[in-house]
Amino acid sequence: MVPAFGSGWLTLLYKELLRFWKVSFQTILAPVLTALLYLLIFSHVLESHVSVFDGRVRYTAFLVPGLVMMSVLQNAFANSSSSMIQSKITGNLIFVLLPPLSPLDMYAAYVLGAMLRGIVVGAGVLAVTAWFAPLSLEHPLWALVFALLGSAILGTLGLIAGIWADKFDQLAAFQNFLIMPLTFLSGVFYSIHTLPPFWQALSRFNPFFYMIDGFRYGFFGLSDIAPGLSLAIVAAFCVALTALTLFVLGRGYKLRH
Amino acid sequence: MTPAVEIVGVARRFGKVQALVGVDLVVRPGEFFGLLGPNGAGKTTLISILAGLTRADSGVARVLGHDVVTDYRNARRLLGVVPQELVFDPFFTVRETLAIQAGYFGLRDAGDWIDELLHHLDLTAKADANMRALSGGMKRRVLVGQALVHKPPVIVLDEPTAGVDVELRQSLWSFIRKLNADGHTIILTTHYLEEAEALCGRIAMLKAGAIVALDTKQNLLSSFAGLTVRLGAAALPEEWRGRILRQDDHSYLLSLANYAELERLLAALRGKSIEVDELSLQEADLEQVFLRIMARHH
Predict the structure, then answer these.
(1) Cα(A215)–Cα(A234) distance, rounded to whole angstroms?
(2) CA-CA distance, A230 to A150, in Å (whole number)?
(3) Residues of B in contact with A88 (CB under 8 A)
(4) Contact call for B51 and A18, based on CB within 8 A
């Protein structure tokens, strides 16, 4: 039985959680396994070839927070985007549009649901991959803040993509041509200091880079960029996207015709 | 008394199509109100505007005095809508679907009412079945349950019996009648005109986005005094073709003023040597009224 909430948005959040929990093989275990395979392959091939933070951190250990954050980000995006587009295409979004839910209610429920999925998957990846490398957690609060902000940003981007896309094909394009390159080119697998100057400079325009670098700082106390700057940039990005999404939901763009 | 539904000058255009041309409509509390019209007349657009699913270009819609745009939270709490499309969330069971819908309206402890709804909608045995496992008729009944789960005083049913078999249709209507008797306002759109005739007290007919008739069922029926004649014949004299309400192969439904006109029709048929295969008189029903009004606004 669904628990009794006094507020509609809590029920919508509960529905979002139930939705991914009912298919947890696909939504939680599969991404954990994928991250583990990345770790095993990349660390096996590159452990002895790549030096990060001037050799102060082993490559496999360096890789773990990157993979955790990548999983958090990708799954947060996947949750809100797939929920929204499935509801739109099957037409059952009407059940959310008919009740007295405000734009803020919808935003909070979809994005919190996405954050929770991202963080549950991230925790699973951490629990599995931490066995393969000596890990320290120098500043856990920093790691947590970046995980929360990063998942909120991707949950919000997922919501925007789900609202914008009319077909699964368009959503896949958003995911494969925007989210995936920005994630892979954000320093998950390398430190940007190992890149040529041009690519280093370009990486600084990638907001995902700051999320991953800041998250990694929480583990090693080392980062490519000052963590305070990363936090400011990530927080500003989060606020801007939130404002945009609330505006979009308030206008009923592609939802209320 | 505050109207259950008040629509003032509501207009809406979709590209080149003027879906609604400035509709005014008042539905009083406790009414069983019918909204009829051919496909594309604007019925669903009007309901969507009332439910906040579509924005009007101009005009105002209110539910029990609450504006559906500026005071949408109260307006939506007071309104239950059974949508026309057969939609469902495949992740959940019937009971979860109803409980989640109740929760969206901030309803605590809806369990007893959900049990009652399941009973009335003949879904108790399917309460824990996944929505995907239900037949079309059962899914339609869950939609009705979802619209009623927050006990709205105003209920809009947009083609609710499409795809529902006759027996279930009857049980659904007796349940809706009971809700109406308990004081709920019901607004019904349907293609089954006999359904509207049996249930609705007042009826509005929409055509091309405008209301072309709005009156009590009795007034609508009596305003079309005259004869409706079903005539089976190979052809119809040219001067009588203006009386055709509907035409099938060698069968005509004709509107006549009185028996004297019927005599003249038969004389005209004899004069043209057209043989009459079948002739029957029909009492005025809502379908004929509907056809006449639609023909008049052609």
Answers:
(1) 11
(2) 11
(3) none
(4) no
* C-beta atoms of A15 and B83 within 8 A: no
Dist. CA A154–CA A74, nearest whole Å:
7
Q: How far is CA B199 from CA A92, B50, B146, B165, B193, in A?
A: 29, 22, 22, 18, 10
Interacting residues of A74 by C-beta distance below 8 A, sequence separation 6+: A31, A118, A154, A179, A183
DSSP B274: P
Planar angle of CA A73, A76, A82, nearest 5 degrees: 130
Does the structure show a pLDDT above 70 at A5?
no
Pairing verdict, β B185-189 and B227-233: unpaired
Residues A18 and A27: their CA atoms lie apart, in Å, by 11
Coil, helix or strand at residue B228: strand
Region class of B249: left (phi > 0), else alpha (psi between -120 and 50), else beta = beta
Residues of B within 8 A of A19 (CB-CB) are: 91
Sequence-ordered list of residues with C-beta below 8 angstroms from that of B252, at least 6 positions apart, any chain: B230, B231, B232, B233, B236, B244, B246
Are B89 and A1 in contact (CB < 8 Å)?
Answer: no
ipTM over 0.85: yes
Judge whether residue A12 has pLDDT over 70: yes
- Name the residue ranges covered by the structural domains of chain A: 8-47+54-251
Checking if the pLDDT of B282 tops 80, the result is no
Count CB atoms within 10 A of the CB of residue B278: 10
Q: How far apart are CA A168 and CA A189, in angstroms?
A: 29
Sheet hosting strand B244-248, strand order edge to edge: B244-248, B251-256, B227-233, B276-282
pLDDT at res. B149: 95
Helix axes A8-21, A59-90, angle to 10 degrees: 110
pTM to 2 decimal places: 0.86
Which chain B residues are closer than 8 Å to A257 by Cβ?
14, 48, 53-55
Of A6, A15, A87, the CB nearest to B106: A6
Which among A7, A97, A98 is the nearest to B106, CB-wise? A7
Question: Using the 8-state DSSP alphabet, how is residue A28 labeled?
Answer: I
- In chain A, what residues touch B89 (CB-CB under 8 Å)? 87, 90, 92, 95
Q: Give me the count of residues in chain A.
A: 257
Contact A18 B54 (CB under 8 A): no
User: Other C-beta atoms within 10 Å of B279: how many?
Assistant: 14
Give the pair of three-digit tokens for residue A114.
Answer: 């996405």
* Burial group, residue A60, by CB count within 10 angstroms (0-12, 13-18, 19+): buried
Per-residue pLDDT reduced to its tens digit, A56-88: 778 888 899 999 999 999 999 999 999 999 999
Mean pLDDT of A113-137: 93
Distance between CA B283 and CA B265 in Å, rounded?
Answer: 18
Please name which of B193, B191, B203 lies closest in space to residue B159, comparing C-alpha atoms.
Answer: B191
